[in-house]
Design the sequence.
């Protein structure tokens, strides 16, 4: 198993506890991506803006695993208010087109940080030629970047 990271996606706050992404054989698994930052959620309380950021982080980690969004087989989306599903759908449509992944959308009572409204998990398969180019993540935690 290889732990994978991306410079534009902050390492987990407790890297000894979990990984943002893992590659096992020709499969990749992403932990839930959200819009959390040290200054509060990217996009404030706007679920669409938070979803755009969550999908951006998901895409960055997918690419760090040697795959593309077309290689994602399944996504799981967690929302704190199911009424925001259309906003998340609009954000999702900026990432996926054509042959869509399987998807589950679930309403939850809360996410890991105050103010977060959406979180996205993904898993998929890595094209065989890309497997050789995967670079393991640093074991040293990085400082989260503030989006510009």
Sequence:
């Amino acid at each position: 198993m290889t732990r994978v990271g991306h410079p534009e996606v902050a390492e987990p706050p407790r890297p000894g506890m979990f990984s943002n992404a893992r590659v096992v054989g020709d499969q990749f698994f992403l932990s839930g991506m959200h819009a959390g930052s040290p200054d509060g959620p990217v996009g404030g309380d706007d679920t669409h803006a938070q979803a755009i950021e969550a999908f951006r982080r998901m895409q960055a980690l997918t690419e760090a695993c040697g795959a593309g969004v077309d290689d994602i087989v399944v996504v799981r989306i967690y929302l704190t208010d199911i009424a925001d599903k259309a906003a998340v759908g609009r954000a999702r449509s900026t990432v996926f087109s054509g042959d869509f992944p399987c998807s589950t959308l679930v309403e939850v009572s809360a996410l890991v940080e105050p103010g977060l409204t959406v979180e996205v998990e993904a898993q998929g398969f890595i094209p065989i030629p890309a497997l050789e180019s995967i670079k393991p993540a640093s074991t040293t935690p990085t400082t989260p970047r503030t989006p510009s």
